[in-house]
Recover the amino acids of this structure.
């Protein structure tokens, strides 16, 4: 919702909540101010910001994200996490890697399955190949244009060497990961102990398919354990 208000593609309002960058930013600003008034000053407030909407019409761009980032800095936000894409239009470009076709199909009612199958198969043929650190370039641009606020980069960070390089070169301040921790909750400890140089996550994205089925959050690289998700299946 907050991203939709920030985006000129989604936000078609012409009142005080839309029509200009300042007005589109107003809702996020009010939310942050309310949060700051409700928590102690020692509580960090971090904002995840989108740099590329990937919508058919004009949406959020890197230049717009840089403008928003500057305003967020002025509001006293503790850090910014840089991401990209929207669920409705970016599809697998938000996550990259394999399309969990079978898992998503399983989550749908029978009358939706045929069309969904063809749609997902078409999506498999699109360029959704995994690219390590696909948001790093935009994160570096924001960091250069809006100095003084810590930048967290998320999006396919998998190898320790690339993470260390990105931080040492000043492209970002922190690394954000999600899927790798589903398979290896102790990944950071393994990095620190030199027991690993790369996350084992293979970007099969079955964890996303699991979410569509209301199965417990976890790594499903080896498939769905016997009995997993039966209650959720009954609810469907």
């Amino acid at each position: 919702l907050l991203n939709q208000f920030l985006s000129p593609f989604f936000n078609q309002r012409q009142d005080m909540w839309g029509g200009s960058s300042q007005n589109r930013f107003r809702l996020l600003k009010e939310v942050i101010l309310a949060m700051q008034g409700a928590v102690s000053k020692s509580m960090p407030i971090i904002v995840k910001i989108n740099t590329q909407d990937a919508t058919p019409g004009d949406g959020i761009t890197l230049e717009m994200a840089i403008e928003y980032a500057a305003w967020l800095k002025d509001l006293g936000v503790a850090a910014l996490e840089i991401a990209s894409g929207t669920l409705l239009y970016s599809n697998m470009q938000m996550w990259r890697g394999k399309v969990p076709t079978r898992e998503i199909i399983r989550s749908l009612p029978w009358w939706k399955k045929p069309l969904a199958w063809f749609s997902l198969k078409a999506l498999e043929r699109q360029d959704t190949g995994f690219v390590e650190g696909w948001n790093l370039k935009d994160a570096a641009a924001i960091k250069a244009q809006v100095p003084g606020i810590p930048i967290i980069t998320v999006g396919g960070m998998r190898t320790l060497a690339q993470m260390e390089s990105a931080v040492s070169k000043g492209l970002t301040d922190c690394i954000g990961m999600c899927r790798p921790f589903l398979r290896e909750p102790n990944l950071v400890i393994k990095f620190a102990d030199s027991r690993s140089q790369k996350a084992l996550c293979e970007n099969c994205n079955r964890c996303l398919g699991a979410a569509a089925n209301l199965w417990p959050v976890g790594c499903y690289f080896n498939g769905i354990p016997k009995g997993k998700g039966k209650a959720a299946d009954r609810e469907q």
Remarks:
- Residues 230-236 have pLDDT under 50 and may be disordered.
